[in-house]
Amino acid sequence: MIFVSGEEIEKLRREMHSRLKEGISEELRGWNWDRPPMAPYSQRILFGISALANRYCETYRDIYLRYVLRKKVPISDKLIKGLLLHKLVYNTVARARETIIRMWPFRIDDLLHELTADEQPVRTALDEIAKIFGNEAREGLEAIAISLYRFLVRQTVCEVEKARMKYTWPNVETVLAEALPSVAEKRVDGSRLGFSKNLSIDLLEGNIILEIKTGEMHPFHKYTIAGYALVLEAETGVPHDAGMILYIRFLENGDPIVTSSSVIVDDALRREFLAIRDEAMEIVDSGIDPGMPAKCPSYCPWRSVCHG
User: Fold this and answer.
1) Exposure winner among 47, 63, 190, 304, fewest CB in 10 A?
2) What is the C-alpha separation between 38 and 232, in angstroms, rounded?
3) DSSP annotation string for 234-300
4) What is the chain's alpha carbon radius of gyration, rounded to the nearest angstrom?
């Protein structure tokens, strides 16, 4: 599959089964959304998963600014680039899926030509960014968008070829399952747990959650996987115990590379994320400014707000 190999997914599933031999505590399953500790004690505010998971600020002043003072998240080049790449990934996966189905059966060279001849997903993603932030926001982003698109096309074609070689008589559904993630931009309602009604999960491969990041690695990224696991369990009643953070970065020559970090959503991680949610709710309910932390990290998106 593009981004991660079948071997990596299999390794993660083995790790999950090994580390969770005794299972997950029933009280910490998302489907117990109406009972403590899963049930939110307040639903006055519905949080975005990323707003809670991205713990840049140890005092939660970012929560106070966003949900009490109602300040908008500061727009930065990093935010715009991240949103562009997320949109491009979704557009590319959708285009590849449609093309594979429409052209099947095909020669692999014909598929490559069809996907590279028209880079519509790039234009669409750039247009979406311009619609949100203005035309000037797209300046300087076309090169990395094209680079990532061509990378994804090469990965897709390679995975299609591998799937067709693996089976004597492959059908189109088998090839799609092997080459592309099963779901892209899964929409889910997290309101039962105190989260937004319109959450979007980047990618799903079966019950494995795949989250795309375009910046530096941070330990708190694991909370994103935990939050989405709880929300999916609340909505589907199906266990979600693992995920992967996929980091997209670009080399000096402009070529993209993807590295991954696996996350097991065990009892400890579930409790940590619920504690973050409850702390955030207390701050919003009290309406009291928690103050700035002793050390404000330079990469915090709210730094310009706090420091003027």
Assistant:
1) 304
2) 13
3) HHH-----EEEEEEEEE-TTS-EEEEEEEEE--HHHHHHHHHHHHHHHHHHHH-------SS--TT-
4) 21
| Closest CA relative to residue 54, chosen from 259, 281, 280, 261 | 280
Confidence of residue 114 (pLDDT cuts 50, 70, 90): very high
CA–CA separation, 13 and 125 (whole Å): 33
Contacts of 57 (CB under 8 A, 6+ apart): 63, 292, 293, 296, 300, 302
Do β-strands 208-213 and 256-264 pair in parallel, antiparallel, or remain unpaired?
A: unpaired
Task: Report which DSSP code applies to 107.
Answer: -
CA–CA separation, 156 and 170 (whole Å): 16
- Mean pLDDT for the stretch of residues 204-209: 94
Domain ranges of the chain: 6-70+182-287, 77-179
DSSP reduced 3-state for 5: coil
Report d(CA 215, CA 281) in Å as an integer. 27
Q: What is the pLDDT of residues 34-70, one digit of tens each?
A: 999 999 988 889 999 999 999 999 999 999 999 999 9
Q: How many CA atoms lie within 13 A of 212 on its CB side?
A: 26
Task: Report how far residue 97's alpha carbon sits from residue 176's, in angstroms, rounded to the nearest whole number.
Answer: 7
Which stretch of DSSP H or E encloses residue 200?
A: strand 199-205
What the block records as the tokens of 154 is: 């090469």
Residue-wise pLDDT for 149-187, tens only, equals 999 999 999 999 999 999 888 999 999 999 999 999 999
Tokens at 5, concatenated: 């190999």
Rounded to two decimals, what is the model's pTM? Answer: 0.94
Helix (H, G, I), strand (E, B) or coil at 139: coil
Domain range 6-70+182-287, CATH class: alpha beta
Q: What percent of the chain has pLDDT over 70?
A: 100
- Alpha-carbon distance of 298 to 63, in angstroms, equals 18
Please name every residue paired with 199 in a beta bridge, in sequence order, or none if there are none: 188
